[in-house]
Amino acid sequence: MTPLRTPGRRRGLPAAAALVLGLALAPALAGCSAGNGGSGDSASAPGAAEAPANRDAVLGTGSAVSTYSGGRASTPEVESRALISTGTVSLSSRDVADARFDVQKIVDRFGGEISDERSDTGDDGKLSQVHLVVRVPAADFTRAMDALTGVADLEYSSSKSRDVTTQVIDVESRLRVQRRSIDRITELLDRAQNLRDIVLIEGQLTRRQATLDSLERQSAYLADQTSLSTVTVDIERTPAHRTQRHEDHTGFLAGLGAGWHGLTAVTVALATALGALLPFVGVALVLALLGWPLLRPLRRRNTTPDEPVATPGG
After folding, report:
1. Which pTM does this prediction carry?
2. 3-state secondary structure of 193
3. 285: in domain
4. Which of 176, 177, 178, 200 minimizes the C-alpha distance to 188?
5. What angle in degrees, to the nearest 10, is found between the helix axes of 165-191 and 195-227?
6. Local structure of residue 39 (DSSP, 8 states)
């Protein structure tokens, strides 16, 4: 009986090793099959037929692509796209705390949340600047942006959207293939009889589990970004000179203030002109004092009466 069992064990060991090797190559062959549009050569590899069987990747609630039929891929029809939308809003307000409260009311109205907040205070102890990271449902992104830009004086705003529908389909499809592959390896591990087969199968199971964990993290990130949009809101206190510029300059007091400022401006202008002319006046006076002794003889000569002219017979 012993000589009959030994050959059976030797035949079983290469078979298990070949099966594990086939399972290791299955994802690569399945990927090649998906890239070639479901060619017949790759369908014979273990695990290659799983990709067509699991192409109904879900894109959120009520969004899916059509499944494969007859071993050939049909044209996918996506009911809705998966978008990652982000926006930036920069505001200025005389009362930053009041504007911050208005932003909170908008976030609550759309069922969102403030995931991050940083604030600074001025010398007077009041808020001078607030930085907010707002998350709102993707379906309300446009309306939320419009509401946020109206909270205070708008300085700058921008928004953009990135289509990740293909990425979501790819990740969900790979997740389904990977999970079924792990299920098959787990069944094979339960049937393994010798230590070498167990070690080989556990190694494959560990690597595939790590790949599955990475895909699940990618899927969770995409689900979070496509379900909630991100808006960055910055609120700064309006500078003092801009506040004065926007005040209403009407009425008696406003006129009195304007007149006083005008008088002050005229006085300052006259004083400035006088200060600019004073050096020239001083130089002119010095020159006049020096030239006066020279001018006096000439002045006397010009003022002396002419002598009478003698006439004949006189």
Report:
1. 0.52
2. coil
3. no
4. 200
5. 160
6. -
Task: Tell which phi-psi region holds residue 202, choosing left (phi > 0), alpha (psi between -120 and 50) or beta.
Answer: alpha
Query: HSE (CB half, 13 Å, CA atoms) of 231?
Result: 32
Residue 56 located in a structural domain = yes
Integer Cα distance of 222 and 84 in angstroms: 8
HSE toward the beta carbon, residue 210, CA cutoff 13 A = 5
Total domains in the fold of the chain: 1
Inside any domain, residue 73: yes
Per-residue pLDDT of the chain (314 residues; tens, 9 = 90+): 334 343 344 444 455 555 555 555 555 444 444 444 333 333 333 333 333 333 333 333 333 333 333 333 343 444 578 999 999 999 999 999 999 999 999 999 999 999 999 988 888 878 889 999 999 999 999 999 999 999 999 999 999 999 999 999 999 999 999 999 999 999 988 888 889 988 998 898 999 999 999 999 999 999 999 999 999 999 998 876 555 555 555 666 767 777 877 888 888 888 888 888 888 887 888 777 777 777 666 666 666 555 555 555 54
Q: What is the C-alpha to C-alpha distance for residues 181 and 25, in angstroms, rounded to an integer?
A: 11
- Beta-carbon contacts of residue 31 (< 8 Å; ≥ 6 apart): 51
* Domain containing residue 175: 2-79+168-224
Residue 117: strand, helix, or coil: strand
In this structure, the number of other CB atoms found within 10 A of the CB of residue 236 comes to: 20
Q: Are 114 and 233 in contact (CB under 8 A)?
A: no
* Distance (Å, whole) CA 141 – CA 228: 8
Residue 269 lies in a domain: no
* Helix ranges restricted to H, the chain: 2-35, 50-53, 96-109, 141-149, 165-191, 195-227, 240-245, 252-303
Owner of token pair 């007859």: 70
Query: Residues near 39 by Cβ (< 8 Å), separated by ≥ 6?
Result: 33
Place of tokens 């389909």: 169
Tell me the sheet residues that pair with 133. 116, 232
